Structures are given as C-alpha cells and as structure tokens.
Amino acid sequence: MMMLAAGAMASAGCTDIEDYPDGRMEFEDIFQNPKMVGAYMNECYADAVNSYSDCYGDKTYLASACDEAHDTDDATGGTMYQWNSGFTTPFVTPWEHKYSKASEMRMPEWDFYAAIRRCNIMIDRVETATIRLDSDRESYRGEARGLRSYYYLSLLRNYGAVPLVLDNTSEAVDDWSHARKATYTQIVRQILKDSREVLDNKALGWTSGATDAAMNRWNKAMSAAVMSEAALYAASPLNNDGTLDWAEAADICKEALDMCLRNGYQLVDRMPVGDFAKTSYNAYDYFFISTIDAKGANDTESIIYSRNRHDLWQYCGLPTTDGQSRAGACPTQELVDCYETLQGNMPVLGYSDADHLNPILNPAMAPGEYDPQNPYANRDPRLMASIYYHGAQLMPTDESKGTVDVSEGGNCMVSPTSVRYTRTGYYIRKHSSPSSSRNGNDDGWVRRMRLAELYLNFAEAANEAQGPDYKYGYMSARDAVNAVRARVGMPKLPEGMTADEFRIRVRNERRVELAYEGHRFYDVRRWGILDKTDRVVTGMKVIKNADDTESYQRFVVSHRNAWDAKHLRLPIPGEEVARLLKQTGVNFQNPGWQ
C-alpha cells in the first residue's frame, strides 16, 4: 500500500525541471532541514497516488481495453472506443490518463521519470541529509528504493525496454544526450536489486504501520510483490531475452510468496457477517468490499492498494441504482465463458468461428453439467460474485429487491446506444456493493497487488520451469492454484497434467481470480496471444418466448482494431520522443508507432 502523500504532483516530462517542494527554498537547503527532507520523501510517493487506480479516462476500467469488457463510451466516442477502434497515436493514447479523486487526470506512465528522479535524489542525498533519527534515515533509504522499483515496473509493463536512469541527482537540467534504452532484463535486475535492499532494511517492516498516517508507507511485502511480478514478466514470451529464464523466475516468485506467508499474509477466507451478509454471496465477494485497516487485521491479503474506493455504482453500475450515470465496462461473453462448472470443468474450450458465436463445449462434462439455456447455473461462485447476469438478484439475500432483467424492455436491458444500459448483457459486480447509491458509496478499495496474484505468479512460472507437480519445497504449481481455488470451494486441479494442459488452466485461473484488477490487458500481451483474444467480443441476449420460457442468444458486440503487433506496447509520448531524438540522435519510439 502506498501513502497518499500531500504535495503537488510533478506534471513535467522526463527532460523538464521539477519545482522545489516548498517553492522557495534553495535546493541544497532542503536536505539540511529535517522537516523538508521528510516532505521531499513524501514527494517521492506523489506519482504513485493515482497509479494504483484501475480507473481511467471517462472513469472506466482497463478491462474495456482488452477482452474482459466492452465500454458504453462507444455512444460518446470515449477513450476506450478510441483505443479499440485503433485511433491511438504517439501523441494521443486515449485511456492513458487515469482518473482519481485527488486529480481529475494524471499524466502518462512515462512521466514516472519525474518521480524516479526524486527517488534518485533522495537515495543520493539521504546519507548526508540532516535527519533527526537514524531510523528515519534507514526508512527513507528503503522507501525511495522501493518506490523506484515500482515506478520502473510500471514503465516496463506499458512500454517495454526504456532508459535506466539512476544518476540524475542534482537540481540541474537533466542531460539525456547519453541516454539509451536498457534491455528489459537489465531493468528487472535493478528492480530486484532495489527490492532486496528493501528486504534487508532494518527500519521497514512487513506492514506499513499501526496508524492511519503510516498506513500506506512502503514496506517489505510491497517489494516482495514487485519482485514477483517483475520476474514473471521478464520470463514471459514477449519479454524473455534469455537472461532471466522461467527457472529463475519460479525461484523468485516462490521466494516472494514464502516471505509474505511467513510474515502474516494469507488469503482472506472469512464469510460475510452482519450487514455484509446482506450484500455478499461468499468470502471472495465479501473480500472486495470489506474494509482495509491500518494493522492488516481485517485484510491479510492486500499488499499494494489505495485508500480510494471504487465508484462502480455510478460509473460502471446498474441502471436500477439510484444515481447511476453509466454502465461503463460491461463484461464480455468471453469472460463469462471462462468460469468453470462446480465440478471443475471449463465449459467452453474455444470457438469454432471467428465471431465467437459457436462455442466448443467441453466433452468431458457430464450430462446436464452445463446447460446453454440455463448458462449461469452450476458455475464457479466467483461468477456470481464478479458479474451481474440475467436473473441475478439485485440484493443477494433479499428476493424482494428483484433481479437483473437484460431482455428487451427489462430493468437492465441490452441497449446499443444508451450509456446507462449494458452492451453485452452483463454488468460488473466485483468491487461493487449492492448497497451503494447516491446516498453513500460502499464500494470496495482499489487493490493493485495482493497475495492471490503471488500464488498465481509462482504457479505459472513453476509450471513453465518444471511442470505442474514439481515440488518447490512444500508447494507445486498445482498446489498454488489449488490454494486460490479453495477459498471459493472449487475442486482441486487433478494430478498428472502436462505442462501444456496446466498452462491453459493457470491462465484461465488468472482470468477468473484477477478479473477487473488490471492484469488481463498485460497478460494477453506478455503471453503473445493479443491477436487471438482481442479481435472480437460478444454478448448474450435473452429472448422472451411466447410460452413464457427464455432463450439465450450470443451476438457480436464489437470487432476491434487494437490487436496487431504494435499494440503489444504503448507508444512512448511523441513529445518525449522528439526531445530525446534531438538530444541523442536516437529514435526511442516503440515498433509500429513511428
């Protein structure tokens, strides 16, 4: 979890000069004043404030830029419509400016170089700065390195290989004339180095503190999580250059997971109680709307998160909710299809046509295990916890509140034009409390990294390195996935699967467990399957028959134009490319965005 630090965010590009924190003091004087040193440390956090949000321009979700969702902003030519239509250029990446309560819009991730520079300055000067307590000095050493590693991980996820800058540590205008892109793995090695220094830091603990003021300071679990994700990404097909392989990634992911488990982190499996029992179906559902507290007593799973709540009820909500303005990021049929039956079978193995209208049903299912005309029955409990579908109760324990009706004329009907009604036949439920409305927001908090991801990171890397049943100490890849599935009562994956078979299952598990948490967009890219997943998305219509029965009919919602090779990376902002070209003579732009 990060501190929502006070102070203005630097909005300058990587070649500009940042303002002094107080606007008046000489730069050298800042580090001779203990209060100003602390304020400068807070400024190192500033750009991380909004980076935790998965809420982008038009107050929607990154899910709409991949096959998790289709956004109703197509009615207004909004950010996700522009991205999926292929309108992105080096000068306009439509959804890259994220919305937050602290600031209506934030600059692209490329501007993390301003934050990295502040971290570099703090790392360089903390040893000689005037700081009253040795414990504060030690803490600042670790915090600055942890933040720097997080910023570089964010740059890698979006842009791939970028310049690795560690020496811009003065107030002078940065000289970028010698800048060159480092390799992906070189940057990951620096992330790992910084993270290990945090893990060795004597002042930092495994949680951020026992008070609300200390709640979001960098801690060791954050660095463990950053290590895990960085190693996984480096070993993945898109980024693997042969210098950090799956075997090393598996070791790093297991180490990160073990350290968190040894230091109090565990999956939250408590069932809803009190008022939450009225609004939550199960432990998974409850987790995403329950309170995050300073000591981690309620939430032993979240590692990096924001103090900001989601605003799903209003911007990605049901039209039956008082105050709702948009349906927003509507789940796709492709996402719904990947939720298993309660017997542990994937009901849909793929599609026999390019438009995904003819699903290939799993022949291993027993008769009646999956009924295409009753498609939401007998499914993984995470489906009802994550998605509102036709027939779902508006309030889990109160039938009198009614159900979702997406048929023509229904209270949540499919509409091709209204921003308030679904395009796909589905609405988001995950993170969203049924009790939220204009009278009060009870939605859950924004979580960037949590323990379940670390289990699945290890499972994926371990399978690629040694197969699903090889034991890393007490745990195999299969054991890790089963630990995640156990929370919702899903059956264990069977022994004896091949690595290829398990790869399908662990990727599907990520898709289900981490839905709407900002992972799928990057997963399909690092796996090299973007051209297979993002060409078309579909929905489900419900037709009321004359005999009072209902029929379900798949339909194409959208064909997309953001799936070719250049969309594997974001374009580096054109203004920055021009500045760097002038200073270095090198074109830093990513392939396809020239």
Which helices and strands, and how do they pair?
Elements: H1 27-30, H2 34-45, H3 48-51, E1 55-56, E2 60-61, E3 69-71, H4 79-84, H5 112-125, H6 134-159, H7 184-199, H8 220-235, H9 246-262, H10 276-279, H11 283-287, E4 302-309, H12 312-315, E5 329-331, H13 333-337, E6 348-351, E7 359-361, H14 381-386, E8 387-388, E9 427-428, E10 445-450, H15 451-466, H16 477-486, H17 499-513, H18 520-526, H19 530-533, E11 536-544, E12 550-559, H20 574-584
Antiparallel strand pairs: 1-2, 3-5, 4-10, 6-7, 8-9, 11-12
In short:
Helix content is 34%, strand content 9%.
What does this structure look like?
By secondary structure, the protein is an alpha+beta fold. The chain has three domains: 1-53 and 98-218, Serine Threonine Protein Phosphatase 5, Tetratricopeptide repeat, CATH 1.25.40.890; 58-87 and 314-440 and 529-556, no CATH class; 240-310 and 444-523, Serine Threonine Protein Phosphatase 5, Tetratricopeptide repeat. 34% of the residues lie in helices and 9% in strands. The protein has 20 helices and twelve strands. The protein has helices spanning 27-30, 34-45, 48-51, 79-84, 112-125, 134-159, 184-199, 220-235, 246-262, 276-279, 283-287, 312-315, 333-337, 381-386, 451-466, 477-486, 499-513, 520-526, 530-533, 574-584; strands at 55-56, 60-61, 69-71, 302-309, 329-331, 348-351, 359-361, 387-388, 427-428, 445-450, 536-544, 550-559. It has a two-stranded antiparallel sheet. A two-stranded antiparallel sheet has the order 3-5. Helix 6 packs antiparallel against helix 7 (184-199). The radius of gyration is 24 Å and the shape is globular. The model is unreliable at 1-20 and 98-106 (pLDDT under 50).
